[in-house]
Amino acid sequence: MDDKLSLPGGLERSFEKISPTALLTAHGRSFSDIPFASEMYIELARRKGGDTFDAGRYLAPRLESRHLLTDDALFHTGSTQILEVAAGFSTRGLAWVSRNFRRGKYVEFDLPDVIETKRTVIRFIEPTALGHLYLCRGDALEANDMAKAARILHPQLQRAVITEGLMMYLTQEERIKLAENVKAALERSGGVWITSDVMIKKMLEEDEIYSPGKMERIRTETQSDINANAFDNVGEATEFFTSLGFDVQVRYFSEVAGRLRSPARLGIDAQEVQRINRHSTVFVMRPTSN
Questions:
Q1: Where are the alpha helices (DSSP H) in 30-171?
Q2: Rounded to an integer, what distance in angstroms lies between the CA atom of residue 98 and that of residue 85?
Q3: Cα R_g (the chain), whole angstroms
Q4: Per residue in 116-138, pLDDT tens?
Q5: Domain boundaries in the chain?
Q6: What does pTM read for this prediction?
Q7: CB 12 within 8 A of CB 5
């Protein structure tokens, strides 16, 4: 497999165009107390020759919030069979196997270059984890790739599929394909899809205030029009996933506001955190057939 993200109509988006966003999120998470987040960023920066991948001051509370709320949703599922799709440089799997490797399986799934870079970094910061964390190469829009990753999990135990930072780059047609692949991964064993990827237009309007020109830069770097891909509101997004056969629970970043560490470290007050996160959600979705 080459380092391409396959798109409908024969188009391709190169890995090199998408990967900078994974580096930015690693930077933003480094201001938090997320396990291994600081170590992951420091090692990535060292390997990139000191490039800081500056995520912007305002992004850190949002990235920390989505990680914490996703973790909370995952905990409440009770699942020990986890597939994180487009895992990037998230350290959730690394933290999970350090606590739970005897209880289940954690599979990280991403494009080949990301997986190989991550394997190298983990070997440096927490080498024992490589014996328990499954790192799987593939394309989330390819049904066979997703099925191969899902087969690593126990076939009869409830699963959780996580996407954190992928869907915002996908068109509606691509989102449908992703949803089909996730649903297939959950079909036999049952389970839940947890995603913080539901982008709302008002969130993008706030982003433009905090970081003018950000959307245009992302479009140039990733060849993805996030504004065009965004939902008008949470209701529209809920209807979209309901129409694809999911029961949807919506949770808001405000639920974890009192647990954030990055705002104090960056001098961001509670009122500003509320503004930054007020349109951000985590969707917890179960296939209606389960």
A1: 37-47, 59-77, 92-100, 112-125, 143-150
A2: 20
A3: 18
A4: 999 999 999 999 898 899 999 99
A5: 14-287
A6: 0.89
A7: yes
